From TrEMBL:
This is DUF4325 domain-containing protein. The lineage of its organism: Bacteria, Pseudomonadati, Pseudomonadota, Gammaproteobacteria, Pseudomonadales. InterPro entries: DUF4325. Residues 5-51 form the DUF4325 domain. It comes from the Bacteria. It comes from Pseudomonas putida ND6.
Length: 74
């Protein structure tokens, strides 16, 4: 769902509210994986993603960390 929406939209808003939490492995795979698999550059994701989570603002920093530290697989 994320990749098709990123391809067709200028900005994709993701609201994490209403959950009991998110595992780091899920977040790394879902967001870092976009860069690692060569789907999107870090710069494009910073332009296209709008991330919101009222309950734990640190989660947003964690997602950006996974994106920014991901390396494209050769």
């Amino acid at each position: 769902m994320l990749v098709p929406n990123l391809l067709k939209s200028d900005v994709v808003e993701i609201v994490f509210d209403g959950s009991m939490g998110y595992g780091s492995s899920f977040l790394e795979e879902a967001f870092g994986g976009l860069v690692r698999l060569g789907k999107f550059t870090k710069e494009i994701l910073h332009q296209k993603l709008s991330l919101k989570y009222k309950e734990d603002p640190y989660l947003i920093e964690e997602v950006w960390h996974y994106i920014d530290s991901a390396k494209v697989q050769a």
